[in-house]
Amino acid sequence: MREYVRALAASAALSVSMALAQQQKPPASKYRQDALVYAELSKAPQKARAKRNPLQGDPDAVAAGRNLFEQHCTECHGDLAGGGRKGPSLLVEQVQDAEPGTIFWILTNGVVWRGMPVWSKLPEPQRWQLVSYIKSLGVAEPVPWRGSSPKPSSGSATAPPSGHR
Amino acid sequence: MSAAVLRSSRILFLAPLLFVFLPESSLAQENPYIIAYDHYLEEPGNLEIEYFSTFGTQRSSNDFHAFWMEFEYGATAWWTTEFYLDGQSTFGDSTVFSGFRLENRFRVLKREHFINPVVYVEYENISGADKLLKEVEGHDGERDYADRNAALREEHHHELEFKLLLSGTHKGWNFTENTLAAKNLSNNPWEFGYAIGASRPVALRASAKRCSFCRQNFIAGAEMYGGLGDRHSFGLADTAHYVASVIAWNLPSDWTLRLSAGFGLNENSHRLLLRWGVSREIIGFGSMAKNLLGGHR
Question: How far is A88 from chain B (nearest CA, A)?
Answer without folding.
Answer: 15
